[in-house]
């Protein structure tokens, strides 16, 4: 399973798979006790090179429809992580936002159960 995901890892944010990305968008449901409590992290300090790579990546995301401009009164922190090849990976720290979102009341299936059920499958789609 890991090999399947690893070999297809370049397709996840590709513009040609935009319909797949759009189908994964979830509606934000704030918890009642946090509905009136927006948060705004202070921007992290980045070098000029990191700031430029953040700007370029966000421009690509805007162009591909992966993100959109927002006027919300909340902001999560941007983190730059080095990949194995030395290039920058732009990440967003959504931990505080995730803590404010209502949790779904149905359990996610256990991965080992899913893999056990898919053991004899000839083709995955």
Topology:
Elements: H1 2-7, H2 18-23, H3 48-64, E1 77-82, E2 88-93, H4 95-100, H5 111-117
Antiparallel strand pairs: 1-2
Describe the protein in words.
With 125 residues, the chain is of the alpha+beta class. It has five helices and two strands, in the order αααββαα. It has one domain: HIV Type 1 Reverse Transcriptase, subunit A, domain 1 (HIV Type 1 Reverse Transcriptase, Chain A, domain 1, Roll), CATH 3.10.10. A two-stranded antiparallel ribbon has the order 1-2.
Q: Which superfamily, in CATH terms, is the homologous superfamily?
A: HIV Type 1 Reverse Transcriptase, subunit A, domain 1
- End-to-end CA span: 13 Å
Average predicted local confidence, pLDDT: 76
**Cα gyration radius (Å):** 18 Å
- Taken as a percent bin, the fraction of beta residues is 5-15%
How many individual helices?
Answer: 5
Shape: extended
CATH architecture assignment:
Roll
Which segments are poorly predicted (pLDDT under 50) over 5 or more consecutive residues? none
CATH topology: HIV Type 1 Reverse Transcriptase, Chain A, domain 1
Helix content estimate: 25-40%
The topology string of helices and strands comes to HHHEEHH
CATH class: Alpha Beta
Number of strands: 2
Number of domains: 1
Biggest sheet descriptor:
2 strands, antiparallel
| Class by alpha and beta content | alpha+beta
Protein name: GM10168
